[in-house]
């Protein structure tokens, strides 16, 4: 995969900004989808978006965004929003400013970490498909983007079109341009009446879904927090989440299967510890151990579907997939030219503890 392709992934961040907190009585809305889908029902539609505007940044900063080359590809990195502001403009469009940091992987550079941000004006609308809400954000203009490389694990001797600024200057310039291009695609948020949320770049047609690696059994009463695939290369890791556990007597239900590598470690850590660990991962080439003992530390081997129920007190947690020798119970082969990337398919659900 080329450096340009990997930087293109940086905008899966394009931006699956969450409408989890904006149900707005969604089940009741399902009884009148024709009314809501009527373009003439202006006041009701704007009232719903006014409510959502107050939730979008709050929810965005609770979670991270997987970075993918294409919608159906596994993630090879992740973006973590740290700042966000949203306001409604006089023309009733949504103006969104965001910033954060993340990491991505390519075969030329290995791990690249970065800081990124943007300011975008979106035209927004939604359609109801039964009790499912499709929320569309279409870019009207992008007034600013920024992309600054933090770390390049393996600096290439040269890159196509690299100017006198060197590899970092090239990556910064290309990253900023791709960020701007990807933001222009807009995104779709799909919210079911039970709280499940799916995201897709561009316009996802009503009635369709982005691809998912698992089909969650209906009737479990559990909320799906993640249903994804990630490609975790040798000496790399994936920090999925953070996932919020609310109330007493709750548990995370984890389902994991891997392919392409003999094994990988699954660790669950508190958000504070996970972010300290993540700061180290995006600042230093050599991946280090967790800063404190994890809540869960188990190995998953290829050829099995690993399932665990992890009762947890209220709080926020990262689920970390580790393919390094610095953490967990397993270690990659360690042969320099034998990068056996682990393709990790996983689901994270929140439900009542047993």
Structural commentary:
The chain has helices spanning 3-9, 26-29, 33-37, 42-60, 166-183, 271-281, and strands spanning 65-67, 77-88, 94-106, 110-129, 132-152, 187-191, 197-201, 223-232, 236-245, 250-259, 263-270, 296-301, 306-312, 315-323, 342-352. The chain has 354 residues and is of the alpha+beta class. The strands form 3 sheets. A 7-stranded antiparallel sheet has the order 1-2-3-4-5-6-7. It is globular. Mean pLDDT is 79; it is low at 1-24.
Question: Tally of extended strands?
Answer: 15
**Cα radius of gyration in angstroms:** 20 Å
User: Which runs of at least 5 residues are low in confidence (pLDDT < 50)?
Assistant: 1-24
Number of helices: 6
Helix content: 10-25%
Layout of helices and strands, plus pairs?
Layout: H1 3-9, H2 26-29, H3 33-37, H4 42-60, E1 65-67, E2 77-88, E3 94-106, E4 110-129, E5 132-152, H5 166-183, E6 187-191, E7 197-201, E8 223-232, E9 236-245, E10 250-259, E11 263-270, H6 271-281, E12 296-301, E13 306-312, E14 315-323, E15 342-352
Antiparallel strand pairs: 1-2, 2-3, 3-4, 4-5, 5-6, 6-7, 8-15, 9-14, 10-13, 10-15, 11-12, 11-14
Helix pairs in contact: 1-5
Key features?
disordered N terminus; alpha+beta; 354 residues; 7-stranded antiparallel β-sheet; Jelly Rolls
Q: Brief overview, please?
A:
With 354 residues, the protein is of the alpha+beta class.
């Amino acid at each position: 995969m080329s450096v340009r392709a990997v930087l293109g992934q940086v905008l899966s961040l394009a931006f699956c900004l969450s409408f989890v907190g904006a149900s707005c009585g969604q089940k009741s809305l399902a009884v009148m989808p024709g009314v809501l889908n009527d373009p003439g029902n202006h006041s009701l539609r704007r009232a719903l978006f006014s409510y959502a505007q107050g939730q979008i940044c709050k929810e965005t900063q609770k979670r991270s965004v997987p970075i993918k080359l294409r919608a159906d590809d596994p993630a090879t990195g992740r973006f973590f929003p740290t700042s966000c502001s949203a306001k409604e403009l006089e023309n009733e469009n949504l103006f969104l400013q965001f910033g954060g940091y993340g990491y991505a992987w390519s075969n030329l550079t290995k791990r690249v970490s970065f800081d990124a941000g943007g300011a975008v004006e979106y035209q927004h609308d939604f359609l109801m498909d039964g009790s499912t809400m499709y929320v569309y954000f279409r870019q009207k203009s992008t007034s600013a983007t920024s992309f600054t490389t933090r770390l390049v694990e393996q600096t290439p001797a040269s890159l196509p079109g690299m100017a006198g600024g060197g590899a970092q200057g090239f990556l910064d310039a290309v990253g900023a341009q791709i960020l701007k291009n990807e933001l222009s695609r807009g995104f779709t948020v799909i919210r079911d009446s039970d709280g499940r949320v799916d995201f897709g770049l561009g316009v996802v047609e009503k009635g369709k879904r982005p691809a998912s690696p698992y089909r969650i059994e209906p009737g479990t009463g559990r909320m799906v927090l993640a249903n994804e695939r990630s490609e975790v290369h040798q000496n790399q890791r994936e920090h999925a989440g953070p996932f919020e556990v609310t109330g007493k007597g709750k548990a995370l239900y984890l389902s994991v299967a891997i392919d392409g590598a003999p094994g990988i470690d699954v660790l669950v850590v508190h958000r504070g510890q996970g972010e300290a660990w993540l700061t180290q991962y995006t600042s230093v080439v050599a991946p280090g151990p967790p800063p404190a003992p994890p809540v869960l530390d188990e190995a998953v081997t290829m050829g099995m579907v690993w399932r665990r129920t992890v009762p947890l007190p209220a709080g926020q947690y990262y689920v970390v997939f580790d393919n390094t020798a610095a953490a967990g119970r397993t270690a990659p082969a360690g042969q320099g030219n034998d990068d056996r990337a682990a393709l990790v398919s996983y689901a994270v659900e929140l439900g009542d503890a047993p």
